[in-house]
Amino acid sequence: MHRFxxxxxxxxxxxxxxxxxxxxxxxxxxxxxxxxxxxRYLARLISAAKEEALYEPLVELPSREPACRVTLYQGLCKxxxxxxxxxxxxxxxxxxxxxxxxARSEAKFEGAAKLERLRRIAAEAVKQCGRSLVPEIAEPLxxxxxxxxxxxxxxxxxxxxxxxxxxAAPIPQDVGLLIGPEGGIAPEEAAAIGGIGGRALTLGPRxxxxxxxxxxxxxxxxxxxxALEACP
Length: 232
Description:
single chain, alpha/beta, CATH 2.40.240.20, Alpha/beta knot, 2 domains, seven-stranded parallel sheet, five-stranded mixed sheet, 6 helices, 12 strands
């Protein structure tokens, strides 16, 4: 079923309406799924035009949002790797992504255009996977500033080549994950994480790429938190 972000209750506008009308050629009476305010609705089209479509909600659909809210602090990566991270972690259920400039980051953030691109990728991934809430893609932060935010979570986990036990239950409902850039996490950064109560862990004997590690760590965290159970 086609999914659309609503501009307001009963109304789909802008690019969403144009796609509905011009590309998909949906018509009054067609059923769609509408995303509004972090909720999902089965709805029926009342009218459709190139700039606006009106709908009536039929029933609210079950939420597919995980109860465990995971914030990914991702060391800046080069090229399209940040795109991959935003897309795949959104599909898996990430709550928030914070790009972090770390000691071994080989990339510089490309500014407002890149941030807008990541947010657009996350929004499209939400529609594709059937979520209702678009994760926040925050402004990039230097490690020193991100560190203060990391300390507020109920648990802070850091996959690290320097060692640590595998992730294990119990997992609280508010988790921060720190993933290093291509060059990894510097020893002084790992020490700073330990200093605020963060826990180093291993994802296995193989070295994962920066864009893979976050997705694996997120999946394990949600599984251990019981957040991968089917919707009621």
